[in-house]
Specification:
The complex is a heterodimer of chains A (638) and B (99). Chain A is mainly alpha-helical. Chain A is 72% helix and 3% strand. Chain A contains 24 helices and two strands. In chain A, strands 1-2 form a two-stranded antiparallel sheet. Chain B is elongated, with a radius of gyration of 17 Å. Chain B is an all-alpha fold and 99 residues long. Chain B has three helices and no strands. Chain B is 79% helix and 0% strand. Classes of the chains: A mainly alpha (638), B mainly alpha (99). Chains A and B meet through α24 of A and α1 of B.
Chain lengths: 638, 99
């Protein structure tokens, strides 16, 4: 088995499965979900085989470009479709297929009562195929195909229960926000074609090394790529769709809107490292966007009572960490990807846990209506608890190994730029860790600790929380084990060294503060956040309806007015523009044409009067005309 | 006798024909008016032929005669068929195309 024959299977297998499920329709209802699971697992097995193959090679030969076919060939322009198998893409492949397969398994039970389960699995497979194409593509154009593919799958899955209008609206919102980012990627593609005459990673990198692009061009390219990343990864200012995207079924939130798709933006930035290396301004903007989103998401997360929306805000914030790290340059690339992998595990695990809680509580999502669930759902409590410890960054759980590294890197003085950057971004990352500890503990304590605050139905029916079936708990347990141990294993296994062929080797930089001090202060911030949350949400009683709260709380509850701002700045002017355009069309354009028609009809009406039907009158007209003609000819001669 | 007299006579005949066409309702009489106008024209053409001393005018007159003969045939046929269907030869009754 060699890489060339294996790599295309990664995309082909889930795609074929999706096609079968969609084309066969209802006939595959009985076994469709198992086919979906099989396809995803098969992709994981292929990925594992590729890993073994790559590990058997020396580090500098671990990048294999698999040529698929000549795509576009026109004159001097030549573009072939190919897959790039290297440590970075393979890391993503394994994350997507492993977490994806677990979530497929979970969905078998979670969606068991849904009539359209087979269609759900078809979309999930479509997503896996598109995501793998995205990360395996060897050119920006093929990446764009995958990019759009995951956008489509995300849209279909957010709106999976589209018979409920708010869900369909949420899907549309996600789609539109993503389109804004896609526009950035599209223009960046055109800019690359104009500058380098090629869009594959190798040529772009070579072109930059060869000095084909000025710094200004690279900055524009970098900012456009960042726009694309912001759209896909829900970064400021295109973040508003992620909270609403929780309308999708919980496994979708776990797979697409926590573990994989939303991290595609981070992948894009890391993959475009050569572009950003040549554009320090763009790089700084990346860092700033990451820092803003990190704090933004954390603040929003503190105020949300919906368990899924709190997790979504947390996802946004954690991806903010990754983008911040990616903006730091080679010093941060490896840690961005490291955090991405561990985050993929613990956040997916926590989403699955949230799904399990909802499953047991009659689809209730309001955390103020949970409480004291730890005795009723032990497995969920433990697995979600491990994820919670991981995201807090408590040693030795996963998050500690990745997030602390990012905070340390943020404290490193960059090669270009002043020392203030190290202090600013370091402090933001550190404070973010404290807020993260607060809101995640809040979520955990409100759900599992304190007193019962369960709702009663109108008929007095009380929910009977129960542990979910094994098909759901097994993936949760596996992900929880990952949340607990993966960070240490990857750290010990030399994950950052494994990525070096792509991210480049970096000499160790000393942060402005000693590493130990940073670690201790971070841990201190985390403990403070945790203690505050314990006092507020575990020892003190939690009100069943949210208190009014301070101005900041109220603002955070409505996502810091991001929808209001979007409405005021974009939606309303857009609506007015379309309305005035429609008005202009009706009056000016349509008016001109209907006016022309009316004019013709009016002239016709007038001329019609002449046609009386009396032959003698016609004869008189002819004679008169003749006389006039003769007069015109003869009179001047007299 | 000058040639002018012929032209005057031609003008008078033409005017009589035109008046007949415009004023009479009976299709046969209108037709006769048309014939009178054509023959007045013929007279003018022949007079001009004489005036110029060549045969062009006479040739034209022959053409007019041929056309007039054909026209009489077709016109009379139409009048007869209209009379058969509508029991009237009045030109004012022929107004089916008027909505």
């Amino acid at each position: 088995m060699d890489v060339n024959s294996l790599a295309p299977l990664l995309v082909a297998v889930p795609l074929a499965s999706a096609a079968v499920l969609l084309l066969l329709g209802r006939r595959s209802d009985r076994w469709g979900h198992w086919l979906g699971l099989l396809a995803s697992t098969a992709a994981f097995v292929v990925g594992a085989l590729l890993l073994v193959e790559l590990l058997g090679r020396p580090a500098d030969q671990r990048s294999v470009d698999v040529h698929l076919f000549d795509w576009i060939s026109a004159g001097r322009f030549d573009l072939s479709a190919g897959l790039l198998v290297d440590p970075l893409s393979l890391t993503f492949v394994l994350l997507v297929t492993f977490v994806g397969s677990l979530i497929h398994l979970y969905s078998v039970a979670y969606m068991a009562h849904d009539a359209a389960r087979r269609r759900f699995f078809a979309y999930l497979n479509l997503f896996v195929a598109a995501m793998l194409l995205l990360v395996l593509a060897d050119s920006y154009l093929l990446l764009f195909v995958g990019w759009e593919g995951v956008g489509l799958a995300s849209y279909l899955l957010i709106g999976f229960w589209n018979h409920r209008t708010p869900y369909a609206v949420a899907a549309k919102k996600a789609f539109v926000a993503n389109r804004v980012g896609d526009l950035g990627l599209l223009i960046a593609l055109m800019l690359m074609l104009a500058t380098f005459g090629a869009v594959d990673f190798a040529s772009v990198s070579a072109g930059i090394d060869g000095g084909l692009a000025s710094t200004a061009t690279l900055t524009a390219m970098g900012l456009l790529l960042l726009l694309a990343a912001c759209g896909k990864s829900a970064q400021f200012p295109l973040q508003s769709w992620l909270g609403d995207a929780m309308a999708g079924p919980t496994p979708v939130s776990a797979l697409i809107h926590a573990a994989t798709m939303v991290t595609a933006g981070v992948y894009l930035i890391v993959r475009s490292a050569p572009v950003f290396e040549g554009a320090p301004t763009a790089q700084l903007v990346v860092t700033i966007v990451g820092a803003i989103t990190l704090v933004f998401g954390a603040i929003v997360g503190c105020a949300k009572d919906d368990i899924k929306k709190a997790l979504a805000a947390s996802t946004m914030s954690q991806i903010g960490y990754m983008v911040l790290a990616a903006g730091l340059g080679p010093v941060g690339y490896a840690f961005a990807i490291f955090h991405l992998v561990t985050h993929g595990f613990f956040k997916a695990g926590m989403f699955l846990g949230a799904g399990s809680v909802m499953h047991g509580m009659d689809d209730q999502t309001d955390m103020r209506r949970f409480g004291a669930l730890r005795r009723y759902m032990v497995v969920t409590w433990v697995t979600l608890g491990l994820g919670w410890l991981a995201i807090l960054g408590i040693p030795p759980f996963s998050g500690f190994w990745s997030k602390d590294k990012i905070i340390e890197s943020a404290f490193v003085v960059p090669e270009v730029g002043g020392e203030w950057r190290a202090w600013l971004f370091g402090a933001v990352a550190l404070i973010g860790a404290g807020i993260t500890a607060f809101y995640m503990s809040r979520l955990f304590f409100m759900t599992f600790h304190g007193k019962k605050r369960w709702t009663r139905d109108a008929d007095g029916h009380e929910p009977h929380p129960h542990e979910s079936p094994a098909l759901m708990t097994i993936p949760m347990i596996v992900l929880a084990v990952g949340s607990a141990g993966l960070g240490f294993v990857l750290q010990a296994g030399g994950f950052t060294t494994w990525l070096e062929p792509v991210t480049g080797h970096v000499e160790h930089h000393e942060p402005v503060l000693p590493v130990l001090v940073i670690q201790v202060v971070t841990l201190l911030a985390v403990v403070v956040g945790l203690a505050l949350a314990w006092r507020q949400y575990a020892s003190l009683p939690v009100p069943e309806t949210a208190p009014e709260g301070s101005a900041l709380t109220r603002a955070a509850r409505v996502d810091l007015y991001q929808d209001a701002v979007n409405d005021a700045v974009l939606v309303e002017p857009g609506r007015h523009l379309t309305r005035s355009l429609v008005y202009g069309d009706r009056t000016a354009v349509d008016g001109a044409f209907t006016g022309l028609g009316r004019l013709t009809v009016g002239i016709g009406e007038l001329v019609r009067r002449v046609q009386t039907g009396y032959a003698r009158q016609y004869a008189a007209t002819m004679l008169l005309g003749l006389v006039v003609l003769a007069a015109v000819v003869l009179v001047p001669r007299i | 006798m000058t040639l002018t007299n012929y032209l005057v006579l031609s003008g008078i005949l033409f005017s009589i024909g035109a008046a007949t066409v415009l004023l009479r309702r009976n299709a046969i009489i209108v037709f006769m008016g048309v014939e009178l106008m054509l023959n007045a024209t013929n007279l003018a053409l022949v007079t001009f032929s004489r005036l110029h001393g060549d045969l062009t005018g006479q040739v034209m007159a022959f053409f007019v005669m041929v056309v007039a003969a054909a026209e009489v045939v077709v016109g009379l046929a139409i009048i007869v068929s209209i009379f058969r269907t509508r029991k009237s030869a009045s030109v004012d009754d022929i107004n089916l195309l008027k909505s």
